[in-house]
Structure formats: C-alpha cells, structure tokens
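It is worth pausing here to work through a concrete case rather than discussing structure prediction in the abstract. The textbook approach is simple: state the sequence, then state the predicted structure, then interpret. We follow exactly that order.
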Amino acid sequence: MGFIFENIRILDFIDILLVAFLLYQVYLLIRGTVALNIFYGVFILYLIGLLVRALNMQLLGSILGQFIGLGLIALLIVFQQEVRRFLLILGTRYFRNTQWLTFNNFFRFKSHGEPFWDFNLILDTCYELGAKKTGALIVLAQKSELRAFAETGQLIDGVLSKDLILSIFQRTTPLHDGAVILVKNKIKAAGCVLPITENQKLRGSLGMRHRAAVGMSEDSDSIVLVVSEESGFVSLAINGELIENHRKEYLMKKMKAVFKETEA
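Step two, the predicted structure:
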C-alpha cells in the first residue's frame, strides 16, 4: 500500500490539519444556535452535489452548480453574525498575548497614563442595585470602544460614579431599560440597545437582560455585568458564557483576569 502515500507531502498533512481545525472552530462557534441546522443543510446539499457529479447527471448538476456558485455570498449573508464572531475571536483570543502586534504600537496612538478600571466601584454599584431589585446592564469595553452600540443610546461621556449609574437605572428614568457602556473607566453612553443571543442552550427562564448580556459578549470583546430585576443576583457575561450568582470577590477576580490588571 506504499503507492497510496508516495505522492503525499508533509504540506498535505498540514493542509488537512488546518482544515480540520477551522471546521472544529466553526462548529464551536455555531453549536447551540440555529445556524448549526443551516450548516447541516448546506453540508447535505454539498454531498448531494458530489453524488450528482459522480453520476454525471448534467441537468441537475448544472442547477446545483449555479446554486453553489452563489453559495459563498449566501453563506456570508446567512452567517454574518457567526463570521463576525469568528473574526473577533481570531483577533482577540489568538493575539491577546502579542501586545506588540497592534496598530497602537506601530503608530503610537496609545496614550500613556490611562486610568485603571475601578472594578470595586462598579461591582458595589451592581450589588446595591441588586439589593433594591433594580435591573441593570453594564458593558465594560476592552479594545473596541463600541461606538456603534453607544450611538443607539444617549451619549454621556461622563465621569464614572456610583450615584450617576444608580440614577440612570432608576425605574422612573427613560434610560433604565437600556445598557450603560463604560469605556476607559468613564460612562460613554446609556440607554443603549444590545444584540440578543441565539444560544439555545441558555436556560429558558433567563430574561432579555441576560440574553442581551450574552449576545453583547458574543459580538464584541467586552464583558457585561447584568443585575436581575427578579432575584437581584449579579451575573457576568464573558465570551458568550454567563457566570451566574457568584460572590463579588469571584467576579472581581474574573474581571481583572480579562483586563489583565493587578490589584493596586
């Protein structure tokens, strides 16, 4: 059986491994969502196309050929959210530790002396809101300043303070139903609209705030704090995962790990 492998190169093995890795990453990205069923349908259609080609069925083959020819554009339209998430994960997860490989370092855009996040103030505010059973949604931006999401609400550009956040989420204020976006330890905007996750593995009892928190953490590199209006529990959404009902110290540790800040 040596003749089977005599024309196979090392690059062919690398090619197969890379394709397998990409398919696995795509599966991890869309599992638990409606997009997984669409992916199955596309895969079955591709297998049918291979069978039609093997049987030399010209009429059906030409129809499928025209359909598959437009398939890439159709897939980009159907899977636009998943493609966006895949590129975001590629740019954050795999280049997170390569701080030198950034536009800021190449072009010197980064300013020195940027303030550290006041996680203690943010969490204290969330737990105070939870004690009053007041729902809240707070987004902490990382590298992206989330301007597109901030523009869906009311721009504030104010100094971060507990009193201001508490006043925003009072039930009588017009901004309490939306999210507050924090950028560089400042309040960028309030009353913002966030994307809703399509993850079907989340508990059915979760409300729209929690689903918006997970959706925002899927569509951006931000982390999102959410306060339940029913239970008062504080949860944290990171990379599409929801960490529910943990103590303040645990959430503080998770947030500092994400932002790579050490305790002062």
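Step three, interpretation. The first helix runs from residue 2 to 5. The domain at 119-259 is CATH 3.40.1700.10 (YojJ-like (1).
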